[in-house]
Write a structure and sequence with these properties.
With 157 residues, this protein is mainly beta. The chain is built from 2 helices and 10 strands, in the order H-E-E-H-E-E-E-E-E-E-E-E. It has one domain. Strands 3-1-10-9 form a 4-stranded mixed beta sheet. A 4-stranded antiparallel beta sheet has the order 2-4-5-8. This is Lipoprotein.
């Protein structure tokens, strides 16, 4: 019985270290940050299956940041409409959808920088987009298993 606990601890450590990081297990989303205080009344994602995640973030989030807006995997672009008082702004982001096989996971979904053409269309005064992978290579870390940062958008209204 004395030797059973160390054996269990060692085996559980080996099992956890051998887990492959398969990336996000839900719909991909873009992170949006506003560089100035921007009181949003509403955000609408065109052709989104549900507006509920966006509405929930507006009531729970801070005025400067909306963390996760869903991106469409049916096309290489997603358009958002932002409303603040009488002001209405539009942001269309362009990306390349990536479907690939990753050993131990099967097929994974990722999105990256478009190979050619524009990266966005925006009516905001300044917009920047950073493209990173959603699926990190290699093994899942021992602690702090977070997916890659994905698409990050910085907006100056």
């Amino acid at each position: 019985m004395k030797h059973l606990l160390p054996v269990i601890l060692i085996l559980s450590g080996i099992v956890v270290q051998s887990c492959v990081d398969c990336g996000p297990q839900a719909e991909l989303s873009a992170r949006i940050r506003f560089n100035e205080l921007y009181e949003l009344d509403s955000i609408y994602a065109l052709n989104a299956v549900s507006q509920e995640p966006i509405t929930r973030q507006l009531t729970d989030g801070t005025p400067r940041q909306v963390d996760e807006l869903p991106i469409s995997l049916l096309s290489d672009t997603t358009t958002y409409i932002f409303r603040s008082g009488q002001r209405i702004d539009t942001l269309s982001i362009y990306y390349q959808r990536i479907f690939r096989y990753k050993g131990g996971c099967g097929f994974v979904t990722d999105a990256g920088e478009p190979a050619t053409g524009r990266h966005y269309y925006s009516t905001f005064s300044k917009t920047e987009i950073d493209y990173n992978t959603y699926v990190r290579p290699g093994q899942q870390p021992w602690f702090g298993s977070n997916p890659g940062s994905g698409i990050s958008i910085y907006i100056l209204p």
